[in-house]
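Q: I have 87 residues here and want to know how they pack in 3D. Can you give me a structure?
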Amino acid sequence: NRPAPPPLPREQQREFEDLVRKSQSSSSSPNPSLNLHPDARLPVQPDFEGDVNPRTGEQGGPKQEPVKRSTEDEGGDWSFKGRVSDF
């Protein structure tokens, strides 16, 4: 005896259940990137493949530098996890 919304007429209930089934079956696609919300950030792509960073020679380190400059000049801003700060 939980509170519930008033029952729908039989035709509308069937239509509602069909719509729910369709939306659930379309969201279980084999490609998980299609399931992202339009506002969601895309996954970060690694800077290199393999275990050794070709630029620094570091083994087993991060695939992408955690702290970066937004520009190559000395006056550029730094970013960390997508947040930009100006020191």
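Q: Anything worth noting?
A: DSSP finds one helix and three strands in the chain. Residues 10-27 form the longest helix (18 residues).
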